[in-house]
Amino acid sequence: MTDFLIYEQDGAVVTLTMNQPDARNPLSGESQYKAFLEATDRISRDDGVRCVILTGAGSAFSAGGNVKDMRDRKGLSEGGPYQIRNNYKRDIHNIPLTLYNLEVPTIAAVNGAAVGAGCDLACMCDIRVASEKARFAESFAKLGIISGDGGAFLLPKLVGMSKAAEMTFTGDMIGADEALACGLVSQVVPHDKLMDEAHILAGKIVANPSHSLRMSKKLLREGVHSRLETVLDMSAAFQALAHHTAEHEDAVNTLLKAMEK
């Protein structure tokens, strides 16, 4: 694991903390991309993990791309058009491909500004809990670029096409209350209670069997773009597996005993 991403595990919950607060936790270098790949691979290999919380150290969640690197033609911005295309495909695209498709539920605990790629990063998670100090901006247009890491796929699915278009075309910042109103986040909490609330939510999630969580997440992801018939077929197959687990049998017996009292 690199220094950029702190990996902490408490039982079934893994907390990932982006740890470059002085630079506002940017997403613009190979070390950051590598850190996410290593973390998601480690989580995927650990069947004991049932939920992941992603947050940022310091005052920002993530400020996204490094503007100085853009100016100096470094990192993702290095080389001609064809090389830049490949820089994105080989580097930062690994984050949405691994984080968005991670089998276990993920919570973004947004502690401050989530700008550009940082906003998209929050959108890659399943649930977003925002501090009252959180702010969001799909700000690429203000720099004369576009979302290169999946924002055009992610944002409309969360806030609808009209709001996604407004955020994308203006690049304007929205606060936590507006993010709650448009469905970008599901909770806004006091800043000093953010991680407590994220862990409370994670605790409710991990109280459920791992196989149910993983299969439910897969169905939700497929439901975004698949036909109803496809999701129903997958649901039947997953349900057949779930019915033959000890966790299901124990839960049914516990409920029936409670109903008899």
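Second entry:
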Amino acid sequence: MTGATADGMTAAAALKASTLVEALPYIRRFAGKTVVVKYGGNALAGTSNHDALTLFAEDIVMMRLVGMRPVVVHGGGPQISEMMHRLGKESEFVDGLRVTDAETVDIVRMVLKGQVNPQLVAAINVHGNYAVGISGVDAGLIRAEARAAGLGYVGDVTAIDPAVIHGLIDDEFIPVIATIGSDASGQAYNINADTVAGVIAEALGAEKLVYLTDIEGLRRDVADPATLIRQTTADALDQLVADGTIGGGMIPKIESCTRAVRGGVRRAHILDGRIAHVLLLELFTDDGIGTMITAEEG
């Protein structure tokens, strides 16, 4: 072995060691804390040059093994749109919400519970029998009512009963939740996954609410990466929505973040789920990554 090679190996080993040491205070801080992670359909569909789902699963299992209590909430927008296209139905959106007739709500259930949820559960369980897939209709987890007649079976959350989640995480499982809710009559509703993640985080008293999507964070100008907002507050985001800086499909995500941090969740984060090990970079390093939202400055 040449001196240069040995030096290179030593430097690489030292970097790994320093990274582990850097993570120690964060591991201590977050041990026993609940972190709700919303894994977006865009993150699942929009991989870059690596298998984003595999790396996401590794991050979630690592969080669990160092004593955190991860809860995964998932969407499946692109997958639902693809299935609708295959079945000859066109997707229609109003303010980022999918108009959902009776046929579409059946498609939503089929995709979320039959495709996306098992895919996430299987990816996590490659590393051990940790993940359990559920939906909002299980054990009355998510109660909902129709948001507006023009949206069809799009629901607003009326109540969260987190007993089934508490039972799973107390038994050291990782809940993986599909965002279908139901009303008292059993009618199913398609509920925006960003919204569900926020209300579940609030109901659980989570330490963090994390959104994984297909952009690196919140931008003042969606077309300009240089306008990335690293840290902001709920009041500042309200202003950005009011003046039109934030619009479209980002609105439910931002509204969910601001409600959650005002409701007791300490931090909300918007991260690029296509980046390798983005959760670990955000949780366990000094620099962090993406956009962080707090209730107030400081």
